[in-house]
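Write out a record, focusing on structure:
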Amino acid sequence: MPSQRVLLDDALRAYTEGPARLAGVWPHQGSLGLGALADFVVWERDLHAEAPARLREARPSCTVWHGEVVHEASDLPLPEQTGPPLRGAAGP
């Protein structure tokens, strides 16, 4: 129902910042910033460029937890690297 939809940024915040605040660990967790743990997901596509109906098709290509790569999708191409490699990240 269109009147009940949630904006993408609000939905992402509900899975990141929201639980960290409830657990009392924000901003050390649930955010990206100086002094925060490096926990994040790299998606195979730009979620903001997708039609809302196609968001369910998006798959994570890489998951980083506490600064270490803990998941890499073997059947997805890695995104173009634009900076120095992540510590512990597997190269091509």
